[in-house]
Amino acid sequence: MGKAFKLQSVLNYRQIIEREAQQVLARALTRQGDLMAQLARQRAELDYLTSDFENRKRQGLSMADLNLYRSHIRYSEQQLRSLEKEFEQSNTEVCRCREELMRSCQDRRMVEKLKQKQAVQTRRENLHRENLSLDEIALRERQGGLA
């Protein structure tokens, strides 16, 4: 019977770390998707405001209304820049999470390889012991047959 893998707790820990890294990446990707949708909505709103402003300007607006529209458009542009900045930060976060997941996968694979090597070594040792036992039995039978 093979001996237990001494680093099983390390392998279990590495698997947990990898799962956590997968979850963190999934959350970061979800956040990035949400920001992408918000960016699209904000761009659409800004496009609508701009075209509506141009149409109303042609129809004739009071100075107060013109200033109000301009103010709203500036606010919408600020919101868009803020979302774009957040989106860039989320891209950085997603890249960081992917790198962390790659590292945790490599760590887990390294321990799994070690486990496989140990299993192969244990099988070889068991086979060697079995062969020694068979040789000893054969030797005893031969010695018993000669006497």
UniProtKB/TrEMBL annotation:
Family in the record: Belongs to the FliJ family.
Protein name stated in the entry: Flagellar FliJ protein
Keywords from the UniProt entry: Bacterial flagellum biogenesis, Bacterial flagellum protein export, Cell membrane, Cell projection, Chemotaxis, Cilium, Flagellum, Membrane, Protein transport, Transport
GO biological process assignments: bacterial-type flagellum organization; bacterial-type flagellum-dependent cell motility; chemotaxis; protein transport
Keyword Transport appears in the UniProt entry: yes
Topology of this chain in the membrane: Peripheral membrane protein
Cellular component terms (Gene Ontology): bacterial-type flagellum; plasma membrane
Source organism (scientific name): Geothermobacter hydrogeniphilus
Compartments it resides in: Cell membrane
Gene designation per UniProt: fliJ
Keyword hit for Cell membrane: yes
Principal place of residence: membrane
